[in-house]
């Protein structure tokens, strides 16, 4: 499913195996557990780096499991379960008391795209892999928190239109031009290496994680409201 490893100030959350990393209820639960563990072990200077093995960062929800339910209504019910279960992952990434970096080494589609976008920094491989919101092609409406996240995280109106209403498949350099991705790199290895360098630079700042998380939440009040994350004012420690 996924693993969490701490090396110095950096936590490495890795989606393991060479499959599509479909966001099943089991994988979602594993992600929540890892994020909770990172939060509980956070100290000044902690940074989270998320990546995956194989061709896919994540290909979205486990639609195969939903379609195996035996009827259209049962499939919709299973999909709704995954949509509801994934919302706390977005909430956890908004609340975790440290900077977060996604190193996307392969395809990221639908909820997998949102998983990457929910990090503070989003790095991507340029030679392989695309970002793709498949909902318009599949005839599925966006959950409210998906829309809120894309409104919060993608500043370009035409960029949001192309991603959400056109189902455009974006490669690394295109995503950089749209301001979605921080930087694009030539291989999976160089993407992760760049994410680690960035993480180490951020770790050196030794920020107060609770204050960092509250500032992050204050940047995205509408998204926080939709996913049920409150914004507090922590006491400053000078």
From TrEMBL:
A Gene Ontology cellular-component term: peroxisome
Keyword Lipid metabolism in annotation: yes
Xref: Pfam families: ECH_1
SUPFAM superfamilies hit by this protein: ClpP/crotonase
InterPro entries: ClpP/crotonase-like_dom_sf, Enoyl-CoA_hydra/iso
Superkingdom, taxonomy of origin: Eukaryota
Name of this chain's protein: Delta(3)-Delta(2)-enoyl-CoA isomerase
Species for this entry: Prunus dulcis (Almond)
């Amino acid at each position: 499913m996924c693993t969490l490893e701490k090396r110095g100030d950096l936590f490495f959350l890795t989606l393991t195996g060479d499959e599509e990393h479909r966001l099943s209820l089991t994988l979602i639960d594993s992600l929540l557990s890892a994020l909770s563990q990172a939060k509980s072990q956070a100290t000044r200077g902690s940074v989270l780096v998320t990546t995956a093995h194989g061709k896919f960062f994540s290909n979205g929800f486990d639609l195969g499991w939903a379609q195996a339910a035996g009827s259209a209504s049962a499939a919709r019910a299973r999909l709704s379960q995954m949509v509801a279960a994934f919302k706390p992952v977005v909430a956890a990434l908004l609340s975790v008391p440290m900077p977060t970096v996604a190193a996307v080494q392969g395809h990221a589609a639908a909820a997998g795209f949102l998983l990457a976008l929910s990090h503070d920094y989003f790095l991507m491989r340029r030679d392989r892999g695309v970002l793709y919101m498949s909902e318009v092609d599949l005839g599925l409406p966006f959950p409210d928190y998906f829309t809120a996240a894309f409104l919060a995280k993608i500043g370009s109106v035409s960029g949001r239109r192309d991603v959400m209403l056109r189902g455009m498949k974006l490669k690394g350099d295109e995503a950089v031009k749209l301001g979605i991705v921080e930087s694009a790199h030539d291989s999976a290895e160089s993407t992760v290496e760049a994410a680690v360098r960035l993480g180490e630079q951020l770790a050196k700042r030794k920020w107060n994680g609770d204050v960092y998380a509250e500032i992050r939440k204050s940047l995205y009040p509408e998204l926080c409201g939709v996913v049920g994350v409150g914004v507090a004012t922590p006491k400053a420690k000078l």
